[in-house]
Amino acid sequence: MAKKNKSKKDIIKAYMDYVLEHSNTPESVFKFGKDNGFTEAEFYNFFGTFKSVENSIFNDFFENTINLLEKNREYKEFDAQNKLLSFYFTFFEVLKANRSYVIMTLSRRKPSLKTPGVLVGLKEAFKEYIDGLDIDTLDLKQEKLEEVKQKGLSELSWQQLLFTINFWMDDNSASFEKTDIFIEKSIKTSFELMNIAPLKSLLDLGKFFVKEKVMRKN
Questions:
Q1: How far is C-alpha 88 from the geometric centre of its chain's CA atoms?
Q2: Distance between CA atoms of residues 103 and 25, nearest Å
Q3: Quick one: 199 and 139 in the same domain?
Q4: Domain, as residue range, for 102
Q5: Residue 89's closest CA among 168, 207, 200, 191?
Q6: What are the Cα distances from residue 90, in Å, to 70, 106, 123, 169, 196?
Q7: Cβ(12)–Cβ(57) under 8 Å?
Q8: 3: in domain
Q9: Is 195 helix (H, G, I), strand (E, B) or coil?
Q10: Is the domain of 39 the same as that of 55?
Q11: How many CB atoms lie within 10 A of CB 125?
Q12: What are the tens digits of pLDDT across the range 55-90?
């Protein structure tokens, strides 16, 4: 019987298993392939480097999220705010199913305002998703809010997602319920700011975040 060629999915799974078992990346494509039953040529059919594998994994997390959302009829009828909320909750469920890998991969280059290289592909896909939501924003008269608007909605949304990933990585609550609360408050606040709503939600979010940081230090 002819040997069945390894698929992209097979290589990704083998890579994730290796990282989780060895707490490091493989030494070489040759040895990695030999240990997992595929050749260097098969690897290079899909990836140029191990970094591109890592990038692809986070892209797959995004694509899995979108596929799950699109299977839900109600999601298609949601407004932009509820679509984004649905994205967040679904995306973090996908991350939760792969938490050990995500923590191990990102802990060495924890997300901040600067995007880690491993998340560059995810950033592009997410920003495109945000643009597709057609979020309505009002003309902002306040100087500070105008500066925020000029930065670009999709870029701000990406920074918000990175911030939430940071929060989730540090969250030790059962079922990551504190992350769920943080998501609800931050998305609500973002949309209220875009519509120049009262700043109560912003203050509530700030109090919540500060409280969590203080509690973790004690």
A1: 8
A2: 14
A3: yes
A4: 50-107+126-217
A5: 168
A6: 11, 20, 17, 16, 28
A7: yes
A8: no
A9: coil
A10: no
A11: 17
A12: 999 999 999 999 999 999 999 999 999 999 999 999
pTM of the model: 0.81
DSSP output for 143-186: HHHHHHHHH-HHHHHHHHHHHHHHHHHH--SGGGHHHHHHHHHH
CA angle 169, 60, 157 (to 5 degrees): 55
At 87 the three-state DSSP class reads helix
- CA 105, CA 119: separation in Å to the nearest integer? 11
For residues 29 and 59, state if they share a domain. Answer: no
Which token pair is 21?
């078992």
Domain count of the fold of the chain: 2
The CA–CA distances, whole Å, from 105 to 3, 57, 63, 170, 177 equal 32, 11, 19, 14, 23
Helix axes 50-70, 99-106, angle to 10 degrees: 140
Q: Say if 119 falls within a structural domain.
A: no
Contacts of residue 161, Cβ cutoff 8 Å, sequence gap at least 6 = 88, 126
pLDDT bucket at 153, cuts 50 / 70 / 90: confident
